[in-house]
Design brief:
Elements: H1 3-15, E1 27-28, E2 33-34, H2 55-64, H3 66-80, H4 92-104, H5 107-121, E3 124-130, E4 149-156
Helix pairs in contact: 2-3, 3-5
Length: about 180
């Protein structure tokens, strides 16, 4: 037994064997000690710090951590690595021409980049570039002729800013969404 313990034990025996609880009002709220101060866990909370709203921090994470890079890249690269196989009643010559055109226009590379950016940034678009079509109007497939498709334009979520002032007002599933 240490010297201090034995002295306290002797003092308790001298004062009587029973201990008395005193109700003082000592509080130290910073260290969460004292009457009514709660515990240290009571002072904890989760802060609002959405990392997905910081583009630069997301890019640093992607470039500096191989784990983050793999989590983003593996899915997109697995999805586009083997290419596309056309099935059904399509002429094999047409199928081969489509595959060559897709390779020349780097369609699979664009889809891979779109998927990577969507996973990294929380959103991305692949815009079809069709000569003669206004991207602000609905696509009119009947007006597209041979040679008008020029490829894909990949945009991350920070480049595309929808107007929240001009919303769809017609009743339906798109009501309240940007036009």
């Amino acid at each position: 037994m240490s010297r201090n313990r034995s002295r306290r034990a002797t003092q308790k025996q001298a004062a009587g064997a029973s201990s008395v609880h005193t109700g003082d009002s000592f509080q130290n709220l910073a260290s969460r000690t004292g009457r009514g101060a709660g515990s240290q866990a009571d002072g904890g909370s989760y802060a609002f710090s959405p990392i997905s709203r910081n583009q630069r921090e997301l890019e640093f994470c992607y470039r500096s951590s191989w784990i983050a890079g793999q989590a983003i890249d593996a899915y997109a690269e697995d999805m586009t690595r083997e290419g596309i196989e056309f099935t059904g009643e399509i002429d094999p010559d047409h199928s081969e021409k489509l595959i060559k055109a897709m390779s020349r226009m780097q369609i699979l590379d664009g889809l891979c980049s779109t998927t990577k950016w969507a996973r990294l940034y929380g959103g991305a678009l692949a815009v079809m570039l069709i000569d003669g079509q206004n991207p602000e109007t609905p696509l009119r497939k009947d007006l597209i002729t041979k040679g008008q498709f020029k490829g894909l334009l990949v945009l991350d979520r920070w480049v595309v800013q929808p107007s929240l002032q001009d919303l769809i007002t017609d009743f339906g599933p798109d009501m309240g969404k940007p036009k």
